[in-house]
Amino acid sequence: MRQITMAEAINEALREEMRKDPNIFILGEEIGLRGGAFTCTKGLMEEFPGRVLDTPISESAIAGAAYGAALTGTKAVAEFMFSDFSFIAMDQIINSAAKSRYMFGGQATIPVVFRMSSGSGRQQAAQHSQSLEVLYAHIPGLKVIMPSTPYDAKGLLKAAINDYNPVVFLEPRVLYFKKGEVPEQEYTIPIGKGDIKRSGEDVTVVATGVMVERSLAVAEKLAREGISVEVIDPRTIRPLDTELIVASVKKTGRLIVVHEAPRTYGMAGEIIALVMEQAFDYLNAPPQRVAGHDVPIPYNRNLERLAIPLEEDIEAVVRKSLK
Amino acid sequence: MATLVLLPKLGVTMEEGKIVNWCKQEGEEVNEGDILFEIETDKVTMEVEAREAGILRKILIAEGETVPVTTPVAIIGSADEDISELLGSGDNVQTNAGQARGAAMPGIEEERPGAAPKDKPILATPRAKKLAREKGVDLSKIEGSGENGRIIEEDVIKYLESTSAQKDSIPLEGIRKIIAERLSRSAQERPHVYFTREIDMATCLKLKDELNYKVTLTDFFVYAVSRALREYPAINVTLAGDEILRHAEVNVGIAVDAGKGLIVPVIKNADKKSLQEIAAERTNLVQLAREGKLIADQVEGGTFTVSNLGMYGVDEFTAIINPPESAILAVGATKKRLVVSEEGDIRIRPVAKVTLAVDHRVIDGALAARFLQAVTGLLENISL
Amino acid sequence: MDVTTSLSKEQLTKMYYDMWIIRNFEENLLDLYQKNLAYGGMHVSVGEEAIAVGACANLKREDTIVTSHRGHGHCIAKGADLKGMMAELLARKNGLCKGKGGSQHIVDMSVGVLGAQGIVGAGCGIAVGSALSFKIRGQKNVCVNFFGDGAANTGSFHESLNMAALYSLPVVFICENNGYAVSTSFARSTKIDKISVRAGSYGMPGVTIDGNNIFEVYKTVGEAVERARQGDGPTLIEAVTYRWYGHYVGDPCTYRPPGELERWKEKDPILFLEKYLLANKLCCQEEIDGLKAAAGKAIAEALDYALASPEPEPADLFTDVYFEK
After folding, report:
1. Which portions of the sequence form the region Disordered (chain B) (predicted)?
2. I need a surface site. Which of B18, B72, B88, B306 has the fewest CB within 10 A?
């Protein structure tokens, strides 16, 4: 199968959907003439004149306009160059987009996608490196997606564009230019369905974003010692594929959740609580968290590297759970 | 003067015994010859009589406990005698000066192996607890291999596997344990070879009806086998190291289902006993076996075993040789079968199928076959 | 004001009637609030009726409005279902938002009421989105955004007006400057005298008008709507007015200087139009009384409907969080 980057996969998803539906437009900073800070929208302005809007640096208006357009029947995809910038737009994303179907008693459908690059790894320090998936996942009314491969990014973005709910789509920045298999033919991936990236029997590792490939590397290493690790990527943070995770833990009896975002009040806590509620009797070791430290992301490359889980951190906790 | 009652050694091989029942309670009067307690050894359960009269002042070993022979198990003395000196005499005994008369001794209780200390919580994962709950496993009996000694599922599985033979929580001990050990050792050590043939039982059955005393087919087999063994002493042997010991006596064991396990009481010098004597002795031994009252002497010294499962309708079966013997005869049911006579006539005859198993290290096939032929001849042409 | 001559008697009496509907609606709410039949955050627009009615008189059904926490009047003027609105304010199952939105989230998508917004300033961005939607679809429709003087100081206002001007979007921003943001007077929150002067800095026309003069509102908004409809971009209109009952129902209004309310009551926008209708012999007193009575009856019917409507059921708590196919 052909190999393309996640940025190319995102570009294809947008292009394919915009070709099919003239009712879709995209807006954001640097997305038109420049083709996106990370090339995700390259060539789209030329192909879809009037439907690709370079905006001023106005995150609040970007989100408000995307929501307002979606509320009136146009499918909008807004891009935030860095998820950190979406803080400025949070009023529209959360107070408007997330809540309006409910507070309007079901009168609204909001087909809007808020795309944003996410996470650390490029020495861009605290205001350009944060992982915000749980901030958004905490909000009823939003769907939150975080792909870890080009294949998942494409299939899920296409599903997100055609979903009539507001979707926050987090793209791990360091994965933009990593290649992965993506078929030529069209496909979508249902929102809310996790993926078993590697089957195993001894321990379940739930990982998102960049942590998926790190967990897979650990699984590969431990397999040589006869330790069988199951790696699950929920892909959708909300709604979470609880069923998949619970079934896996019922099989393995051990759960480790790995994410880049800080540990405290993180996704791991939520997933572990769900497993406690639904599979307590199946646990054969205390569930563990492997998560980013509770610090803003630092500039220094070595410190930045240490701020989020490394393969050895994941490995150590997997081993500990098997003791 | 007060005396210690010791656990008696009731056979050459007996090293320990389990007190299964105290027939007297503390404070109760005991006469010489009274049954004091019952013990179970690796072979049998037997009663132990009091050798002196007095009051059973103290039971030192509780029911269910297994202790080495000669361990003090009780104190008999007069009612108001000071027994504190005796209380301190046994290795396993601790004294408790302030102990009220007749109360249990906590010192001994605490030393019981396997009992979990009450104040320490058992660490176990929910998965391990769930499995233990489902399988009825007491987690206090399991050593945890997880972090901080936490019991994990694998520990419970291992425990279950190790105790799969005792699903009803019956420890593998006593008779069952010795059967298991003996038979597995026999099957492993002795290359068994089997010889099956049919025996016409018509004469035996006719005789059985004519006799004025009660006799079973087993008795006929013991009778015939014992005579054949006298004729073929090379069958009546034990392999001991580099030597093949030919036994002077012909002692035929009878496999008996004693309810809680197989037991093989022995009819000593069977070759010298009449059918009637054999029948009488067999009746008595089976009765004792079922009541668990065989004494050590009654189950030792066998040189050959007869195992008859004919009464259960089994046509034929093979048996494992009962060590240290070298041969065993497995007897199936006597049933009416079509038999072609030497003359070529087809007749209906009562026939038993028997299978002789021999230890091929010490008994050759031809010898075994001739022995079996002799047994057959004795039975088909029996005359007392 | 020549605009008066361009309006027919039917249009004028409709405006008069609509303003009475709004006032009756709001004043009934004050009563219902005291009876605890309506509750929560409640902001009424008595005294500001001319802006809602004058502006919306220029709009088609397919045009849209985005309003603020003080939005009952705008929704009524745009044609939102009165009964559904009243039921919503009484938190009933038959309310426009099934009793889950309330005063600050009134919506009626069927007539282009895109929803009231409880967050001050948020509506500006949403209006840009609605206008963008019209533009992308090639529809000749307009979005009118109502907000207060408080919203004019939010970042959203600035970002949205810049973006609307940049893309020449069909949107009319109407700032109802009623003198107070909650209890903070306009002078204490804003250095400039007129919000409309900000329009120039975004590259759009801006004007300040008397919000209690319905003719002025009608004419100014009409021009802005037409400009937007023709693709010439947005306009910022500052309509100066006054809210009679303070920020929220129960506001003691201690921040008001004595006599201020009384002076504004003399500039009652309804009375202004009534005088005009009588003075110009467009209506006789009986007709005026008849219009008032009809408005009162319409509100009474809406109230009857709302009071007869059931409470939401517990299961309704969980519906409408997500759209599900």
Report:
1. 90-121
2. B88
